[in-house]
Specification:
single chain, five-stranded parallel sheet, 444 residues
Length: 444
Amino acid sequence: MKTVIIGGIAGGLSAASQIKREDRGAQVIVLEKSGDVSYAACGMPYNLFYKDKPVEDLYALNLDMIRKERGIDYRQHQEAISIDPVRKEVTVVDLMNAREYRESYDFLVYVTGNKPIRLSLPGFDDNGVFYFKTLDDTRLVKNIIYEKAPANALLVGSGYTNLELTDVLYNMKITPVILEKSATILPSYAEEIRAKVLEKIAEKGIRLHTNVDIIEKKGTVVRTTAGDFDANMVVVSIGVKPNTELFSVAGGELGVAGAVKVDRFLRTNIPDIFAAGDCAEHYVRQLGINGYMPLGPVANKQGRLVGSNIVNSNAMKMFYGIDQTAVFKFFDLTVATTGLSERQLRENGANYLKIHVDTPTRGAFPGGGTMRVLLLFEKGTGLLLGGQMIGQDVVAKRLDVIATAIYKQMTVFELAELDLSYSPLYSPVWDPLLIAANKAVKEV
C-alpha cells in the first residue's frame, strides 16, 4: 500500500505517523513545499522574545527522527502542482533541483493547510508588510525586530494572532497600534468577555481603531479612513482561507468557507482521496453539521484518523467532531471559549440563557487573581451550550472542565454537583465553576 500525503505539517505528519504505526510495511511519502517539518505554529509569537532561540525549536520532530525512526519518506521543498485522480498520480516539482516528476498513489491525503488573506491594495506587496502565518514569516519578523529595532508596529486585524503579537511587541518595547475593519473585536465572544479585553487594551494605553478601511501604503505610511499611520513594521492578520486550488482543479468538491468537503470519515468526493486539517471542513458536534475552525489540535486528530482509516479501510471510524474549544493569552489574561457562541445560538434560534460571575481564582493564599466565568445554557433543561472565561491564573484548565461537560451533554445542575478539588493554593472553597453553575441553576 502506497500513500502520498500533500502537506507535511500538523495533519500531514499525524496521518503519516499513524499509517506507519499501524502498518510498518506501508510506503508513505510526504510532500512538503517548505523547508520545514511539522511545527507548533501557536508558539511563533513567543519565539520572538528570544533573539538566539532558533525557530526550529518549534519543530514537533526533527527530520532524522521522522525518516529513520518512523520510516516516513518525508520530502522537503517538493511542490505538488497537479492531481490526476484517474491515473492516481501526483505531479511534483522538486524546488531545489528544478525538476518535475510524477508520484503514483493508492491513497492520497490532502492536507495543504490554509493561507492568509492578503490585502490587494497599493503598497501592501513590499517587504515591510508581513503575514504572520509560517516559520518563514517568523524568521522575517524576528530579523526586522533584532536588526532594525522598530519603534512601532501597525497590526491590521484584531484576531488571536495580532492580539498575541500586541502582547509580545508591547513587552519588547515596540509600540503596537491595532486597526480593525469591523465595529468591534473578537466577534465570537460575548460582550461580557470582550469588555475585559478592551479594558486591558485601554489599561496598557494601546491604540485600537475600529471601523477602519485601509486605503494604501506609501513607504512607511499607511493611509486609512481613520487617518495616516507611520509604521516601521506592518503585520496583516485579517483571516485565512483554505488552500484548496489544487484539489478543486482535480474535480474536488468544496464546502463550508471554501474548505474541502469531507464526510464523517474524512473522505472527499474523489475516490481514495482523504482531506484533513486547516484545508478541510470540521464537523461541529453540537450543530450536527460541518463548519470551519482551523486549529492545531483538530488538524492532528483528523490526520491521525485519516491514517487509521486508510490502513483499516474496511472498518473506518468517524471523526467525532469538535466543540470549538480555543484559548489565547493577552498580557496577564487568559481568554478562552468552548461550545457554541452567543452569535451561533441566535443564528440557530436557540432558547438560551446566559449568566456570568466574577470570582477570585484562589483561596486565602498569596498570588492568584480574578476571573470571569460565563455560561450559556438551554432554558428549561439547563443543558450546557457554551462557556467562556477570562482572567488571571488557572483559566484554561477550568475551561477544559466545561469543554468536557459539553462533550458529555451535561446540564448546569450536573455541573454544580461536580466534586472539584479544593486547596486554597488552587481554588476558593467554592470553585469559580461551581459558583457559576449554581447561579445558572437559579435562572433555569
